[in-house]
Amino acid sequence: MADKKMVQEITSMDVDFAQWYTDVVIKAELIDYTSVKGCMVIKPAGYAIWELIQKQLDARFKETGVENVYLPMFIPESLLEKEKDHVEGFAPEVAWVTHGGLQPLQERLCVRPTSETLFCDFYKNDIHSYRDLPRVYNQWCSVVRWEKETRPFLRSREFLWQEGHTAHATAEEAEARTIQMLNVYADFCEQVLAIPVVKGQKTDKEKFAGAVATYTIEALMHDGKALQSGTSHNFGNGFAKAFDIQFADKDNTLKHVYQTSWGMTTRLIGAIIMVHGDNEGLVLPPRVAPTQVCIVPVMQKKEGVLDKAYELRDLLKKNFRVKVDDSDKTPGYKFAEAEMRGYPLRVEIGPKDIEAGKCVICRRDTREKIEVSLDALEAKVSELLTTIQKEMLERARAHREEHTYTAKNMDEFVQLFTEKSGFVKAMWCGERECEDKIKETLSVTSRCMPFEQEEIAQTCVCCGKPAKKMVYWGRAY
Amino acid sequence: MADKKMVQEITSMDVDFAQWYTDVVIKAELIDYTSVKGCMVIKPAGYAIWELIQKQLDARFKETGVENVYLPMFIPESLLEKEKDHVEGFAPEVAWVTHGGLQPLQERLCVRPTSETLFCDFYKNDIHSYRDLPRVYNQWCSVVRWEKETRPFLRSREFLWQEGHTAHATAEEAEARTIQMLNVYADFCEQVLAIPVVKGQKTDKEKFAGAVATYTIEALMHDGKALQSGTSHNFGNGFAKAFDIQFADKDNTLKHVYQTSWGMTTRLIGAIIMVHGDNEGLVLPPRVAPTQVCIVPVMQKKEGVLDKAYELRDLLKKNFRVKVDDSDKTPGYKFAEAEMRGYPLRVEIGPKDIEAGKCVICRRDTREKIEVSLDALEAKVSELLTTIQKEMLERARAHREEHTYTAKNMDEFVQLFTEKSGFVKAMWCGERECEDKIKETLSVTSRCMPFEQEEIAQTCVCCGKPAKKMVYWGRAY
Hints:
Low-confidence stretches of chain A: none
Shape of chain A: globular
Strand order of the largest sheet of chain A: 3-7-8-14-11-10-9-22-23-21-20
Oligomer: homodimer
């Protein structure tokens, strides 16, 4: 049973979910560790997923009028310090450049942890009149945060992301863009990644350093923990005042601009793994699968088998991302490997199949095997990929529903977080004190105040005072 | 004549080419300066060119089997020091990170100036057997070199590029890949950027730190100066020995791999400006023009004019990158702006044109005006873009031929570099001493030993000893 070796080495997700996750990222060859602590190599199988995410997200951005730019990776210390809340949030976790070549620098530069200050410094000179507004810019780059505990994709010292930064003439327009981008993110997660999300607003405790309001999409992983999957911030005109970004409005008076920012990161790859993966490895939604169909020839040394495999590949490659595994491994090993790597469909074809004019398609998500005539292969592949994409979202949504609970009071709340794992919906008075207490006693944080509010009770789950908001609570990555 | 203001502010290229260049990058809104010395903002009009370069170059890479990855931006000092020549070449110009958050680091990290050492550190663990070879990886990222003198696109402290890094079982295969990628670069420059290049090998003095051989493509700018536009390096197994990258070959013995690297950067945008630009501003080859057709409505307040402009846009946008300038500026201002930004075609349409069922197309490269019936517009635009792409390459090639000279002896050589500017082809004995002397006396460097050799004379242009190679010499950016 050497064929199964690759699979047997994976820890079961029910035994140790964290170890299962690590096994999958390594065995599916998504990443490798490096000599630089907390930084990883994103290998071809991992980077190709990111390229598909970039391509589809970028197209959605551009449909809403976003233009891409590139700003420097360095921020002078004095620039980072201009907005008080912002520097307090980020200064403790940035990397500092102190020398250029053999010379010490006159002023330290930090490697960008996020680029609000750089965009403000740029907009200050770039925006003069209402004619220059709105500015709806985005950049794809890497950022650095000097984290103590790191995990591949979920939390690393350097990660890849996009960061949108916009400037508007009015507060209303800035708020509308903030919500618009949150909706782009939510739709992208559901339609492309097959990950359902809860949309809502962060509490003041959890919002971004310097923001007036932070909106978030929260997803539930297979182990019942939450993952913040994208955020969109409304800054009001706070940064504009700190950086003096003013424009001459139509009425000829000088006004400060209103700003937003919004970002998604390579952590989405972690979400794909933890929402869809199983004990055989990675399961990729077709829309972000670098290989959608893997053709595995059986008895490939028999005359005509490899030729037929290549013929099917050439047929399918017009509309799908397809490859033939023609390596000298055994079919059993190739099957296990195709499962580990999460290819949505595997096509098995051997001499008997060819004789009968058929082949076997195996779905990665359900592991169902389907016999199909070669004439009908192309249509069947198309149909199955659409079905898989749809059903993966449905299964993830059903899993989230099953693991979303409601608590009317603290006893129920504690019991749920002791016995279950998932989201707990509960009422909140709006006071920081209750959030702090819940975090201290249960290691549970407020994930968001969802846009779709429900009245579960009339009093705060923690203090019993009148409730203001229904909150999703959870343990988070 | 306020309409012409935008253009009048540009310095003529004949008066001051360097100032003309700076005027174009600013007026065409390609970049902006920042608070970080030597680092620039690449604005939407500049970044969109880079996106078109990336897309087309990346597709060409992938056709040759290249896979994209992402490696960390930081290199531990001890890793940078492993290959002696390499560290000597780069250590004087790297940025050093010494602190993470509030703590000093145990070991300094440099921000990558190039990633050979990181790829070696990765390949050391990633490559075990001949089955793992070749590795043909590439990454798109930014790199940092602490330059003293900086100029937008041509030399900046941070710039964007791609860097390919490959590992092979044999020296022959590595050499073949090095040449293959140089050919990809040369073809890309000619076919996409409309820039003709000379392919050749760098002398030992000019080769990359740590390489056995460096190949280059050299382009001639409008002012007669050379621009190194892409390089491809063969490392032999020198890095593999320094980093101990070995594989078990088919004969069951351990062998060191052979490696290559190759890169192109945002400096290509500088090349586009300096090869094709004129005194009206930027001139973009259609294949990298973010806007290929700009429709300018004339008397746009008249009923039906804007509607017709949008109708033409909708017709053209199926196959071309097109926009309507419907701002409230005057037509004259819009014409000048469209020329400054280098749009290959401008379509002018006013009430009389609409009545006559025609419009006027203006070529940016020749400034020729062509009347065309609206029915024939789509076909004419297609034809003109193809023609422009082709003729821009032809003109650039003719310019290079006119500015490529030959010198048989030092008198001719000195006279040419005193009176003319361009490439000078001359023979060389192969000794470093002659290269050094030529550089000291004339500020001229060997650009390359071209693959297409000619025997201009039998003796070295400098020392008179027997010649070994014909060399392209020039003053370079």
